Amino acid sequence: MIWGWLRRAWRMVPAFITAFLLALAVWVSAVTANDPNEEAVYPRPIPITVVGKDPNLILSPEDLNSVTLTLRAPRSLWNSLINEPDAVRAVVDLTGLAPGTYAVPVQIQIGLRPVRVVSYTPKTVTVNLERLENREMPVKLVVNGTPAAGYSADPPQLNRTTVIVSGPQSQVQKVAEVEAVLDISGASESLTRTLALQALDANGNLVSGLTLVPDRVTVSVSIRQRFGYRNVVVKVVLQGQVASGYRLTNIAVFPPVITVFSEDPQSVTDLPGYIETVPVDITNAKDDLDVLVPLNLPPGISVVGDQTQVLVRVGVAAIESSVTLPNLRVEVSGLAPGYAATVSPEALTVILSGPVALLDRLQPGDVRVVVNVQDLPPGTHQVTPVVEILLSDLRVESIQPETVEVVITRSTAATSTRRP
């Protein structure tokens, strides 16, 4: 009886399988209809990740190009494929590889399902594995330039004298020296600089692809003034007085500090800290002065360099004040024939400013207040008066009131009539 039941069940297996496959096909069709597959190029290149590399070997980053690929995936997965950082990876496995050059296959790893890789490029990359080398090398300091005249530089002091050069063996072997460059041109005081280090070959060319530890050094140099030399300021000596009504605004000298020298160092030490110029005559000066003036050097003292004169700049300006002119009558200009104009108010108050010497010379006719009514039609107008000053360099500070009323009317002068 049991055997009969088993034979009947066995005969029904094909029907069950057929039914399952039909159901699966219907389900796949329904799912595909609701979430169709889309084939597209992945929107950004995938960087290649290296795994399995011997830590004692080094690989040039230039050997690893990015991978571009085309994927086929349901529409609902594309957003996750694009936005999840590790959803798509390109990997090359260097496990067990010794130094040398290899063509290594690129493996595409997809972290989501169901996704199919349609195509990708490149499928292989050529890598050059080199042994990692570390070499300790001395730091060579190159000093360019010389200190300012009258100064000397002590030997430079570095915070460290060696550096570790690390990188591919072939590149490290090219390094002939590790160099830092210090410029002390014109230095007149001690200095401290942090300098970048460069790995150079035997021809002085930069060797790339290397790591320097550290990549910078700190250099200190003491700059000292030589015996018999001294920096002193320049003191300008003036002679005379500027013109009446004028004043000094500024006195400057270029250069303000000079370096002097003497074969008798004591005479330099005895200087008061400054050197005077020969007197600069400013008698009756009314404008700025720019003059080259010799220095009044004590016997046995000379200036370092070719400089024998200094530029002295003296600023001269007029002493200014102001004056109030009340009751200046307003004059009318531009009035057309046959018309009359009435101004209100008839007189204004004007405040002028400028050099005292010019204000003292003002005469009654030197200042006029004028309103121009040219092209104005008959009627009442508000007009801004203009102050005319015959003396230059005087300025109008205020006019009160700022506008006047002008009434323009036709003239009522009588006309004669001839009878026949």
Secondary structure tally: strands: 35
Mean pLDDT: 85
The poorly predicted ranges are 414-420
User: What class do helices, strands and sheet pairing give?
Assistant: mainly beta
Roughly how many Å is the radius of gyration?
48 Å
Characterize the overall form. flat
For the record, the CATH architecture of the largest domain stands as Beta Complex
Largest sheet: 7 strands, mixed
Assign a percent range to the helix content.
10-25%
Strand content: over 45%
Alpha-carbon distance between the two ends: 166 Å
CATH C-level class of the largest domain: Mainly Beta
Helical run tally: 5
**How is the CATH topology of the largest domain named?**
RNA Polymerase Alpha Subunit, Chain A, domain 2
Kindly describe this structure:
This protein is mainly beta and about 425 residues long. The protein has five domains: about 1-35; about 35-120, RNA Polymerase Alpha Subunit, Chain A, domain 2 (Beta Complex); about 130-225, YbbR-like domain (RNA Polymerase Alpha Subunit, Chain A, domain 2); about 230-320, Beta Complex (RNA Polymerase Alpha Subunit, Chain A, domain 2), CATH 2.170.120; about 320-410, RNA Polymerase Alpha Subunit, Chain A, domain 2 (Beta Complex). It contains five helices and 35 strands. The protein has helices at about 1-35, 75-85, 170, 265-270, 355-360, and strands at about 35-40, 50, 55-60, 70-75, 90-95, 100-105, 105-110, 115-120, 125-145, 150-155, 155-160, 160-170, 175-185, 190-195, 200, 210-215, 215-220, 225, 230-235, 240, 245-255, 255-260, 275, 280, 290-295, 300-305, 310-320, 320-335, 340-345, 345-355, 365-370, 380-385, 385-390, 395-400, 405-410. Strands 3, 6, 9, 12, 13, 15 and 16 form a seven-stranded mixed beta sheet that branches. A five-stranded mixed beta sheet has the order 33-31-28-30-34. The longest helix has about 35 residues, at about 1-35. It is flat and about 145 Å long. Mean pLDDT is about 85; it is low at about 415-420.
